[in-house]
Design goal:
Elements (H helix, E strand, L loop, with lengths): L1 H7 E7 L9 E7 L7 E6 L9 H9 L3 E6 L23 H11 L5 E7 L1 H12 L6 E7 L9 H17 L4 E2 L5 H5 L23 E2 H13 L9 E6 L21 H8 L6 E6 L11 H19 L7
Parallel strand pairs: 3-4, 3-5, 5-6, 6-9, 9-10
Antiparallel strand pairs: 1-2, 2-4, 7-8
């Protein structure tokens, strides 16, 4: 899969500061079809994920946007053998590579949009509140953002207060699995899906969830209660969520990872200009849904971008 992507994308290593993690870096991906357009997008992937979405880049190119993406530290092309996959102890760790990427993109683009899926949507939302270059971003697009855990609120609260001291006592403590294998297998072409991706970087059985990562996620989600994003926000999500315990036809037509009500509730208070759109029969990753479904999602997104582009922040 990555050999195919190399035909269409460049991969630039971004070295990151670390006192303890040797060779820590992220990878900035830019399309070879970029034309130094005034408008561009920076894509941020989700948890147990990385960039393998050339069809998304293609849609942006059709609409005269340049396209960039990040493989965050310890994800995908950035993941090294000695590292804990997908680990962080604070969401703001990722701000370093987002800021570095924005500085690079600004050299050829005057209007930058952030597009974040799931955990990437949480990270992007936090960045747009406190990130160093948040004022360099014209708008935020969220694809099924990870704004709360799918469990009942009381359970999340109880779990947080149990796990937080454990994360201090056991810095490498973790539980065995991150995402349902049902969802991942519904995506990959070798199982029940249409997509090809690297199963070492996005394994069907997931990666461990580290105690510190869990605490970092909940802290970030709670921070959004005081969100004050100053740019337009678009939030796309499936029309329904259906949390599966076993495989069923619902895996093809609903969000089987997160609760869409959490996305709507938190999303509505992110800032003063938020548009929330439900996509019929969409998956958790709206842009990996069936062709007709994702075409609807793309249409909604680019209609929104067309309306917002004229009023968004532009560099001089």
């Amino acid at each position: 899969m990555d050999l195919i992507l190399e035909k269409y994308f460049n991969f630039k290593k971004i070295e990151l500061f670390s006192k303890s993690d040797v060779n820590l870096h992220a990878v900035l991906i830019d399309s070879k079809l970029n034309k130094s357009n005034k408008k561009c997008v920076l894509y941020i992937h989700g948890f147990i994920d990385y960039f393998f979405h050339p069809h998304v880049a293609q849609e942006f190119h059709k609409n005269e946007f340049d396209f960039f993406a990040l493989d965050l530290r310890r994800y995908g092309r950035s993941l090294l053998a000695h590292q804990k996959p997908n680990y962080c102890s604070n969401i703001e760790e990722y701000f370093e590579e987002i800021t570095a990427a924005i500085n690079i993109i600004k050299q050829s683009c005057t209007k930058i949009y952030l597009l974040g899926h799931s955990t990437g949507g949480l990270i992007g939302s936090c960045y747009m509140n406190t990130g160093e270059l948040k004022n360099s971003i014209a708008g935020l697009i969220l694809n099924s953002p990870f704004f709360d855990l799918a469990q009942p609120k009381f359970f999340t609260k109880l779990l947080y207060y149990i796990v937080k001291p454990l994360a201090f006592i056991f810095p490498n403590g973790n539980v065995s699995n991150g995402l349902s294998a049902i969802y991942a297998s519904s995506l990959h072409k070798d199982y029940n899906g249409e997509w090809d991706f690297n199963l070492d970087w996005k394994p069907i059985q997931g990666y461990p969830i580290y105690f510190k990562w869990f605490v970092a996620i909940v802290d970030a989600q709670r921070s959004l209660r005081k969100s004050d994003i100053q740019v337009p926000v678009l939030l796309l999500h499936s029309k329904k969520s259906f949390l599966l315990k076993k495989n069923s036809d619902e895996v093809k037509v609903s969000d089987t990872v997160l609760n869409i009500e959490d996305m709507k509730n938190i999303g509505s208070v992110l800032g003063d200009d938020v548009t929330i759109i439900a996509i019929e029969n969409a998956l958790h990753d709206v842009f990996l849904s069936a062709r007709t479904v994702r075409e609807t999602a793309f249409l909604e997104m680019f209609n929104w971008l067309e309306k917002k582009t004229c009023s968004a922040l532009t560099f001089k």
